[in-house]
Design a protein that fits this description.
- With 229 residues, this protein is of the alpha/beta class.
- The chain has one domain (32-42, 73-222): P-loop containing nucleotide triphosphate hydrolases (Rossmann fold, 3-Layer(aba) Sandwich).
- The protein is built from nine helices and nine strands.
- The chain has helices at 44-51, 74-84, 100-104, 106-110, 112-122, 125-135, 153-165, 183-200, 211-214, and strands at 5-12, 21-28, 33-37, 59-64, 67-68, 85-88, 171-175, 203-207, 219-222.
- The two termini are 20 Å apart.
- The relative contact order is 0.19.
- Bound molecules: adenosine-5'-triphosphate.
- Adenosine-5'-triphosphate is lined by residues 14, 20, 38, 40-46.
- Adenosine-5'-triphosphate (ATP) binds at residues 14, 20, 38, 40-46.
Length: 229
């Protein structure tokens, strides 16, 4: 079976500092969910940047969906990321002047593979965006009438989740995706995200400080003084 993520002898240090990341082996199979935790400064964001191919200068190998990222040119790596990774970050990175559907369909403008999958899923990319937004319980009257800058934080978070999911990328990477939500909204959001992931079969990597979320994941990676897989 091809692993969706394989880290081997991964080591990364900032200049003049001891290693912040030291991982012998980590494998994630299709559909697996991994929770990454650790104190502030333990390297969680650095690790995500290594996995997305945004941070160069490491030792070891990062292989996503069978491709070793360091062997790709920087341009090919950008395209690979667009094709295979859905990113759901704390600050959402939505384009504030675009409406909800146009934000959700953005990955499909960068990736023919995701455009094809999204079209196959619902008949058209726009319809798949609307299905995901509906699934994440955003009201249809907002889809085209509102710019995302005019949404609440919780609504923006759900638009960002729909954008990460569209076109069923192999790997969803989420960094503190529920940090702005109260407990009830968090539980509801995670439930919807898990249901959608079950259908898409995507693998999930999530960083969070929230112990209530940790309990919902079968696998954990603890970063810090002693890294435990
Ligand atoms: N550009 C950089 N140059 C030098 N050191 C950096 C840089 N970015 C991060 N670091 C250091 O690397 C370590 C890990 O940082 P990182 O942001 O990955 O931690 P984190 O676990 O995500 O923290 P938090 O939970 O606070 O977001 C920290 O000691 C940080 O100071």
């Amino acid at each position: 079976m091809t692993h969706i993520l394989h880290l081997k002898n991964l080591q990364f240090s900032w200049p003049g500092q001891p290693p912040v990341i030291e991982l012998d082996q980590l494998h994630l199979a299709p559909g697996e969910h991994l929770f990454i935790q650790g104190p502030s400064g333990s390297g969680k964001t650095t690790l995500l940047n290594l996995i997305t191919g945004l941070q160069p200068g490491y030792h070891g190998a990062v292989t996503v969906a069978g491709r070793e990222l360091a062997r790709l040119s920087s341009r090919a790596r950008d395209q690979f990321r667009a094709d295979h990774m859905g990113l759901l970050f704390q600050q959402f990175n939505l384009l504030p002047y675009l409406n909800l559907v146009d934000n959700v369909t953005l990955p499909c403008t960068l990736s023919a593979a995701r455009r094809t999958t999204a079209s196959q899923d619902s008949g058209s990319v726009d319809r798949e965006a609307e299905r995901l937004l509906t699934r994440l319980q955003l009201p249809p009257q907002l889809f085209r009438q509102r710019r995302t800058a005019e949404l609440s934080i919780g609504q923006q978070q759900r638009v960002a989740a729909a954008r990460a999911l569209i076109g069923r990328p192999a790997l969803i990477i989420a960094d503190e995706p529920t940090s702005a939500l109260d407990h009830a909204s968090r539980d509801h959001f995670i439930q919807l995200l898990f249901e959608e992931l079950e259908q898409s079969g995507s693998t999930l990597l999530m960083v969070s400080h929230d112990p209530a979320l940790a309990a919902r994941f079968p696998r954990h990676l603890q970063l810090g003084a002693a890294t435990i897989c």
